[in-house]
Amino acid sequence: MSSLPSKRAKLEEGNSAPNEAVSEALELIDACQNDIDALNEKASEEILKVEQKYNKLRKPCYERRSELVKRIPNFWVTAFINHPQVSGILDEEEEECLHALSKLEVEEFEDIKSGYRIHFYFDENPFFENKVLTKEFHLGTGSDENSDCPSSTSTSIQWKEGKNLLKQLLSKPFTNKKKRNSEYKTFFDWFTDNSDPVNDEIAELIKDDLWLNPLQYYLVPDIEVEPEDDDEDNEDNEEEVFDDEDGEGEEDDDDDDK
Predict the structure, then answer these.
(1) What is the pLDDT of residue 10?
(2) CA distance 247 to 126
(3) Terminal Cα-to-Cα distance of the chain (whole angstroms)
(4) Where in this protein does the record put region Disordered (predicted)?
């Protein structure tokens, strides 16, 4: 509930006896605002129930999509590379590793406000032993114990001997490193960093953008190829102009001969 005296306009400062009609109106407006706030809170609860309902309805579609994606080699690594923000944290060695990424899955908690998990499924690869890497976010809005403290956890990566990309990238000369997002240095830096789960922009991009429609990023190169037709038309037009100029020149020569 709002506290009306603290919200009074500065114009009233210095007035020892504010107009009674104005004061009464302000009290009534404050009561209306409290009703609006209560309805907004109820609306949020209803929206949450609808979102939970449709999360269950969407799940079979996501599962069917994941099965179809398996038919396309390097689908997920291509989508990652084509994503304008996510690609900024990928190093060349990490791109090579992500060729083994066979499935991406975002799993929201039953209370969707309280958190979610991002699962990365990998085929056998030369970099680590894990088949699944999971990053889990507890956003501090649920009903569980200690839910008021936002936190995140990451699967411990079981690197194969001599293949720890985190160590290798730290030892790489800075001049040879790809330009990166200023907040996160590399993909695996992001995955293992749980220092600020509330402001994890990469996780939000994966959950709310890349996961919802990865096809738009997989197909980016095909979309960008189309404008080449205009160049061909321009070349044809230029050839026609040259032909006309040549023709005009021949007519002039004929006139001179006459």
Answers:
(1) 54
(2) 67
(3) 102
(4) 222-258
CA dihedral 210, 216, 219, 225 (to 10 degrees): -130
Length reported for the chain: 258
Structural tokens at position 38: 């209560």
For the sheet with 132-138, list strands across it: 101-108, 115-122, 132-138, 151-154
Q: Report domain extents, the chain.
A: 32-71, 73-219
- For the domain covering 73-219, report its CATH number: 3.30.1120.90
CB atoms within 10 A of CB 220: 15
DSSP assignments along 88-128, one per residue? GG--HHHHHHHTTEEEEEEEE-SSTTTEEEEEEEE-S-SSB
pLDDT, tens digit (0-9, with 9 covering 90-100), for 101-140:
999 999 999 888 889 999 999 999 999 999 999 999 998 7
188 to each of 164, 166, 192, how far by Cα in Å?
Answer: 10, 7, 6
CA distance 178 to 183: 14
